[in-house]
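Model it.
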Amino acid sequence: MSNNVDENGKKTYHKKASGKALDTVKKRSKEHDLKLFGSCFCPFVQRVWISLEVKQIPYQYIEVDPYKKPQSLLEVNPRGLVPALRHGDWACHESTVLMEYVRTISSSTPLIPPSPSPQKIPPSTSPQADSSPSTFQLEDLNTGTPLLPSSPQSRAHSRLWADHINRHLIPSFYRLLQSQSTDDQPALATELHTALHELIDAADASGPFFLGARISFVDIQAAPWILRLGRVLKPYRGWPDPEPGTRWWRWVEALEGDEAVARTVSEDELYLDSYERYAGEL
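Modeled.
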């Protein structure tokens, strides 16, 4: 863990991505109509980020300090929370909603004006539009990698288990991470194991991803927390590594080895430092 402190002796937090994620930030820094506002340590941001990388959609990544919210972010989300997305004069937030939006974006065709927007950036504060041609159409034309399958039943199955991730897996992760009681931690670890095993049991038997050979919506929903099991819960709470050869091990290995996922991952130290305020010192 780092020993970075400010002039008052207080430990500082990471404000910029590192490793492969930093390379992606630099690559995606060019001005663009589609803008993702994010913070390097936020798993909810990483969901949307992975989605954009999987779909291979051009976009601009804007790294913000969540404790010093810039006006450009407040225009998109008045609460100043990330992730937030701006697409031309349209803006939205909340990671699952943004994943659904990214899922429907197709590249290579002109932008078709969307239906009346739930939120518009005031014209007086909107920056000049990108001078390059718009490159998106709000219609799924099967360009890029689809995040949901075509079958209505498979889509419903995916959305059901995405809901499981949000309702059960993520809260269990944070309850265990934030618990300072060694008496309570075993039961909380069991709760998280149960949520994971239910998800694994619902997955395609062969895998390695949730629906089979290709990464999709449910994988991306869970990926940031699966990646943090080894990077955060293992050092802080003794979370075990997957047993080699198991379905769970194949899934974790597939996520760790996926190029789109890897492009959003910082160095381990960033995650250790970022979660210390929740978990306590090692």
